[in-house]
Every structure is written in structure tokens, then in C-alpha cells.
Amino acid sequence: xxxxxxxxxxxxxxxxxxxxxxxxxxxxxxxxxxxxxxxxxxxxxxxxxxxxxxxxxxxxxxxxxxxxxxxxxxxxxxxxxxxxxxxxxxxxxxxxxxxxxxxxxxxxxxxxxxxxxxxxxxxxxxxxxxxxxxxxxxxxxxxxxxxxxxxxxxxxxxxxxxxxxxxxxxxxxxxxxxxxxxxxxxxxxxxxxxxxxxxxxxxxxxxxxxxxxxxxx
Length: 217
Known about the structure:
The protein is mainly β. It has two helices and 15 strands.
């Protein structure tokens, strides 16, 4: 998987919201996850997630901006915006746009009559039942086995493994965390959560074995 491909995929694991206890306790108070993104030790951009919720409705806003530079030349750029609305555990609306180094994607979906009516750059289709996307900020998403990719509009089959307890650095502080791995056909992602269910970190590996990581700010 080349750099362009892994950087794009990392942003699309997306947006499924099953409210964790920490989010429920902060109902109506937006929760933000702000990450600096690194390729090996080089900072290449930022990604921000804002989750706003009440008793039944959750809205998620995502913005991402990556630039990989060699000297003064931008070798790769990535821009992604996404808005999703949820009713309980099911996606009600999605509006996502992506520019992956000049290649554009969009994913627009609206839920009605027990199906998600999806329109993407690749065409349109209906997905029956309750549709979920990747939701790193809420560890309950790890119980799902089929997830919508918010960049491509594809449905991804995933396998989730619990790798155990570790101590990682979060905001320059040693922090106890639970480590999970999410594996799909074309990518894998490592995720870490606190004992309260807060999303702490993300890491993946490019095709040439370069490390891509998200550091919580």
C-alpha cells in the first residue's frame, strides 16, 4: 500500500457513534479530539473530530489536512471534511468530501425506509438496515464487523483483536491504555483507549513500512 493509499485510508475509518459513558455524561457538550499526525518522526498535518450529542441524536464533524514535503516541494497532500448525523446507533446522514493528492471523492447518504440511500463518486446504491462507520472516539464501535468507509463509500469487513494493556505517552505523560487492532482486507489500524473509554492514539504502517501515527493534543 503506497503512501497516498495509506494516508487516505487512515482518514476514512470514520464515524460510528455508540455513546460511551464519558460521552453520555457530557450530553449536549461537544467533545473534541485534536491530533497531530506524523509520518515516522515528521509532522505532516492535523485531524480534528468534534462529537456533539443529546439523548438520541449525535452529530460528528471531521476535518483533516496532510502535506508531505521534501525540502520545499509538496510531494503529497490530503484534505478531508465529513459531517455525519446519527439516531442512536444508526447513521442517518453523511456528507463527506475528499481530495487525495488530486483525486476527488464524495460520499452522500440519507437514511429512510430502513435503508441508507448512498450516492458516491462511483455511483449510487441502497444499503439495507442499520449502517455504521468506523468510530475511533468510541470503543463500542469495535464490536462491529461491517463498517462504511466514509471516503470511498465501500462497506469494509473487519476483524478486531484485543492486544492487551500497555503504557503509552499521551500529552507527554505515561498513560495506561488498552490496545486494539482493527484489520480489514487492505489495511490495519492500531488503537489505544483509556480505562474511561477515551480515544488516546492511532497508528498504522505504510506499504514501505513507514509508521503513521496520531498524537492526541
